[in-house]
Amino acid sequence: MLRPETKGRARALQLLYAAEAQARTVASVVPGLARLTGPEPTVLDFAEALALEVTGRMPELDRLLDAATDHWRLERLAVVDRNILRIGAHEITSNAVPPKVAIDEAIWLAHRFGTPESPAFVNGVLDRVARNLGRL
C-alpha cells in the first residue's frame, strides 16, 4: 500500500508531464487528473500543490539541475526524467522532507515511470544536487 504522499508525487509528475506535453498550465490539466485520483482528494490536493510549487520555481530548479548534470542538457532529457528531477530538487531545497527521503521518492518514481536507466541517473543527479547544497 502506497502512502498518500507517494501517490501525490506520482500524480504531480503526471500533471507536470501533461502540462509540458500539451504546452498548457498545470491548473488547466488538473481536471483530467482528478478522474485518475478517484476517491482520494488529499492525493489530488497534494499533487496539485506540489506541481504548482515546482512550476513556480522551475528556472531556479533547472539551474540547480544543470549544475549537477555533466554532459547533459536538461532540455534534452526525457520529459519524465526531467520532471522527476524537478520534483526531487524542489523537495531537497524546500526542506519538505529529508534529502534522503526526497531522493528515495524520486528513485521510486523513476522505477515506476522512467526507463531502466532512469533510477540510477535520478539518484546520481539528486545526490549531487543535495551535496552541492550541503544537504548530504
Overview of this structure, please?
The protein has helices at residues 4-22, 26-37, 41-56, 58-68, 79-94, 99-113, 118-132. The model has no long low-confidence stretch (mean pLDDT 92). The protein has a single domain (4-132), classed as NusB-like (N-utilizing Substance Protein B Homolog, Chain A), CATH 1.10.940.10. α1 crosses α3 (41-56) and α4 crosses α7. It is globular, with a radius of gyration of 14 Å. With 136 residues, it is mostly helical.
Question: Any key phrases for this structure?
Answer:
single chain, 136 residues, mainly alpha, N-utilizing Substance Protein B Homolog, Chain A, 7 helices, 76% helix
Tell me the number of helical segments per DSSP (H or I, 4 or more residues long): 7
**Mean pLDDT metric:** 92
Largest sheet: none
Q: Which class in CATH terms? A: Mainly Alpha
Q: What is the terminal separation in angstroms?
A: 29 Å
Number of structurally distinct domains: 1
Give helix % range: over 70%
SSE topology string? HHHHHHH
Task: Please tell me how large the radius of gyration is.
Answer: 14 Å
Shape: globular
* Known CATH architecture: Orthogonal Bundle
Question: DSSP strand (E) fraction?
Answer: under 5%
Class by alpha and beta content: mainly alpha
* Overall strand count: 0
CATH superfamily: NusB-like
Provide the CATH topology. N-utilizing Substance Protein B Homolog, Chain A
Q: Which parts are unreliable, with pLDDT below 50 for 5 consecutive residues or more?
A: none
